[in-house]
Fold this protein.
Amino acid sequence: MNADTHVLEHPPEGANEDWTIPQDWGAYTPEEHETWDILFERQVKQLPGRASQAFLDGVDLLKLSKPGIPDFEELSERLMKETGWQVVAVPGLVPDDVFFDHLANRRFVAGNFIRRRDQLDYLQEPDVFHDVFGHVPMLANPVFGDYMEAYGKGGLRALEFDSLDHLARLYWYTVEFGLIEEADGMRIYGSGIVSSHGESVFALDDPSPNRIRFDLKRVMRTNYRIDDYQQVYFVIQSLEDLLEQTAGQDFAPIYDELEDSSDLAVDDIIDGDEVITRGTQAYAREKAPASQA
Ligand code: HBI
Ligand code: FE
């Protein structure tokens, strides 16, 4: 979902019109299944007390602890019973209109390949671990499931308004890198965080990033970086509140208004921000860690 990652214009050879392909579960090697198990173990140990209850519930409901890369058919059957969502395989990034159309119809597209062993902590394109472990548990939550469908429908409309950049930021700062306030404290629910060994600690514990209360227009004005840990996280009060602030709104006047407002840098703080923790911004690193991983 990186805006500047190369996306093909037409489905590759062997793919369907809607870009889906067979997962071909039988073709995974023992080593590939083992890669999943290594990544899964490592995250599952780290996430209690860090990941949102909705995410942890989803991991249980979908029985993701079963060893090996999940079979999408089996996974879809369980998911369908919970929220009517399905998981379909795609070869990699798909064009925006195709992506939105799948979401609008409650189909989540997942890469079917898995990262190599030397890429456990970093890779650019979303693989099956990011897509399935990172995204799918939240789709077992009815409120989040509704949010994702609404996002897909909003995406199809944004293409008409030519306002995709603004909408993509909403996806980035919620679905990919969102934080949520829960009764016991701040938790992560964004897929880019929960599937990243480093960022699942950094996002909550590191003193450098700003953590700011989620506000739709504010988020839509904020640039993002795809090559490093985030320097700002937006915190929702509940999934219900997120759904209400987005699906319950007509975006057309918001897009109009945003045309006249400047974009914000990742480390800006502006009037009206409810700052939850102000970052030290002292953080710097030589090599980009995972944003997708
Ligand atoms: N394709 N496979 C895949 N996965 C994504 O997350 C994705 C995509 N294509 C486009 C896209 N995301 C973006 O347009 C969204 O981030 C807005
Ligand atoms: Fe993702």
About this structure: The chain has twelve helices and seven strands.
